[in-house]
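Propose amino acids for all 81 sites.
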């Protein structure tokens, strides 16, 4: 017998602003740390006015790690199903 799975929409939420607040780091400071992404773009992503590309997410996470934070994708994104 075949089971039918109900379709639910997955929702990705950017948690970067909350993560920055938790670390007591400003979006402005993060913008200076990130290589290859403009500070304006980092600020817009942090404030939720722009969706990040995968490349921007990589650069943001790398910037945190370069500053000594043990940042993972789950710290800046949340997947709701």
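Proposal:
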């Amino acid at each position: 017998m075949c089971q039918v799975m109900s379709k639910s929409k997955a929702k990705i939420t950017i948690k970067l602003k909350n993560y920055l607040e938790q670390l007591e780091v400003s979006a402005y400071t993060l913008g200076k740390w990130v290589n290859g992404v403009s500070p304006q773009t980092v600020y817009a992503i942090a404030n939720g006015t722009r969706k990040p590309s995968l490349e921007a997410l990589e650069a943001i996470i790398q910037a945190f790690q370069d500053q000594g934070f043990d940042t993972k994708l789950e710290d800046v994104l949340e997947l709701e199903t």
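The radius of gyration is 15 Å. The domain at 11-73 is CATH 1.10.260 (434 Repressor (Amino-terminal Domain)).
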